Amino acid sequence: MNKKVIAALAMMSVFSTYASAAALRVAADAVPHSEILNHIKQTDKKLDLNVIELNGNLNANELLARGDVDANYFQHVPYLRDQEKALGETFSVVATVHIEPLGIYSHKVKSLKDLPDGAQVAVPNNVTNLSRALYLLQANGLLKLNSTRANTLVTSADITDNPHHLKIIEVEAPQLPRALDDAQLAIINGNYALQAGLVPSKDALALEQAKDNPYANVLVTTPKLAKDPRILELAKDLESKQTAEFINQHYRGSVIPVNQ
């Protein structure tokens, strides 16, 4: 074996040792993502995880692009693709974990049948979750769109029939639980509903279906780190049956594991 090969192998060994020893920095929403990661942190002692909880002022994809974190876990693929365009970056999806069903909630009515004409409906203001919200309203007979395909993005301009004269109000997604005090309905992402003390499987008037849902939450990293042993270990843990069991037991239908 020549000296160059020996030197290369030595460098690989050093990198492997460093990679396994260094803490893996993962940015994640508090609920349920950080909770799931902290569960893995307790059960996989080989993996040194540094879970960085996000707040409203942090863009986890910008953090990843700058190298401030090694991975993030908070988003679905349609949102990620929009972020790639906005940031001029390319990221890698390394695990597909769970679905947080978007739900319709209300403090004003107990059933969608009681919804008055002209009701205000607060929806997420980002492109992908606005589209999800409109499809959920269509699935429950409250309006009609010019598309029935959930992976085709739509906006309010694509509403073709609005028999209840609903007033669609776009709100920053984290603020949607607060909108319940004013609007007749609010369509809230599962993680923000859980953070607000809502139980989607119990409190929602209607929920997205998990079957054929394109909005599963994923673990994301950079192409450079996609084969990092620590990333691969975390991806394996997130897609394991043990993690699926934890999600089912802990969230009881409010978060649905993809890998069951």
Automatic annotation (TrEMBL):
Keyword Aminoacyl-tRNA synthetase applies: no
Top-level division of the source organism's lineage: Bacteria
Membrane topology: Lipid-anchor
Position of the signal peptide: 1-21
Gene Ontology, cellular component aspect: membrane
Pfam families: Lipoprotein_9
PANTHER family per UniProt: D-METHIONINE-BINDING LIPOPROTEIN METQ, METHIONINE-BINDING LIPOPROTEIN METQ
Protein name, per record: D-methionine transport system substrate-binding protein
Organism: Candidatus Pantoea floridensis
